Amino acid sequence: MLQKKLIVSVISLLMLISLMPRAAEASGEERFGGAGRYETANIISKAGWKTGAKEVVLARGDDFADALSSTPFAAKINGPILLTTGDSLKGSTAQELKRLNASKVWIVGGTNAISDKVASQLRNMNLKVERLAGKDRIRTSVAIANKLGSSHGTAIVVNRDQFPDAIAIAPYAAQKKIPIILSDRNELNSYNSNFLKKVNKTYLIGGDAVLSNSLLKKVRNGERVAGGNRHVTSVRIAEKFFSGSSRPFIATGEKFADGLTGSVLAAKRNQPILLVKQNSVDNTVKRFIKNNNVKNYTVLGGNQAVDSSIGLKLHAPQFDRNSEWLMLVNKKKHLSSSYVPKNLTIPNVRFPFSGYDQKKNLRSVPAKALENMFAAAKRDGSTLYAQSGYRSYQRQKTLFDYYKRQYGEAAANRFSARPGQSEHQTGLAMDVTSASVGYDLVESFGETKEGKWVKNNAWKYGFIVRYPKGAESITGYQYEPWHLRYIGVEHAKYITENHLTLEEYLE
């Protein structure tokens, strides 16, 4: 039975809730990020060309399709890629050109991309200026390829409108000085076709939706490097061309300026660029991080481009959002009144009451895990009791209605779930207690020997303390050291070690 002192503690807890971030940054992270893409490009330049660069590539920062092919050329001249607006040279970019002590700037794109006014501003700084340009982005890519010089046995083809694949392949292309040629999805035109006739090997980057199978047949000795999406494609590139990578670059696959300017530095360091979302990581990227035992990595862009939590997410376990163990039930995600979990069984553990009761049940897998956990606790001198597991929708309704009558709806909503919002209905949750607290479900359980054992060891058996202290603003419920939720050992270990809630982990 809920005690009045529990309600008092709830009120106290609400006054003490902290809104500070709960996830610590990973110690192996190096980040090159400024207030925006222009400043980020300058920061990357300072990191990669500390003693200066005589020649520099200049691209437009808000429309850089022309620049997608420029990374191999930038690598050839051993200069960074800097960004500017189309009609005026950015002041911070001018300052970086001075720091580099550059003597020549290669402008990528025609006057529609970067105006003659910018070229004049550069000349007024006593810089030589030359354009790498064609009448459109495809012809610009061919012009850059020709400027690379010498004959090329290999070429890389990317979609003219799909930037992520070009960013991901750029470090390899730059390292090997392989030209990057832009193309439409289905057809070559006279410009890129004539160039590709000169090569003996052609890599197409991206799947059929990006560069068609019919196009693959039109190039000489064509080979496709692709995954199911842009993030997976970046991993396939890393696996093929950067085997054993120890410190990959991380860039957003949604905005591309940071990846463009960072690609030359990635090539200098012999590292791939892996693409992520702003605040989440594809399972395939996680698998690459794990398989290559990556401890350190370099992020391109500020937190608005790649969130500060990305380090935790890179090293998080792979998971299927449809996994039965990772079901999220809370005040926002509800179960239907007809939902009943499969494979309910009564675990062979101690209960503080006898006879059959619906709430003794758990699903079979967490039930076995609970048995193992209770046995381990007993060996360590802590005797645990299971108090409440599965509850049907109707039973939860009866329980919530009782608390609402006793304490008022607002108070009840802090410690009891409404019907359909209870984890107990999943068959994956069990409340545990001990004789030292009279078998009650109270906060003081967390301070007992048994409660401390649960906090430190539950993850080893796939359980987490679902409603940790200080997380009410995230979970919607008060601190409950007794409420355990099964999610599997790998996920439970990660959540516990990083002091996360299930909401933070999944969302």
From TrEMBL:
It holds the Pfam family VanY. It comes from the Bacteria. Residues 1-23 form the signal peptide. Keywords: Signal. One of its GO terms (biological process) is proteolysis. Residues 361-488 form the D-alanyl-D-alanine carboxypeptidase-like core domain. The keyword S-adenosyl-L-methionine does not apply. GO terms for molecular function: peptidase activity. This is D-alanyl-D-alanine carboxypeptidase-like core domain-containing protein.
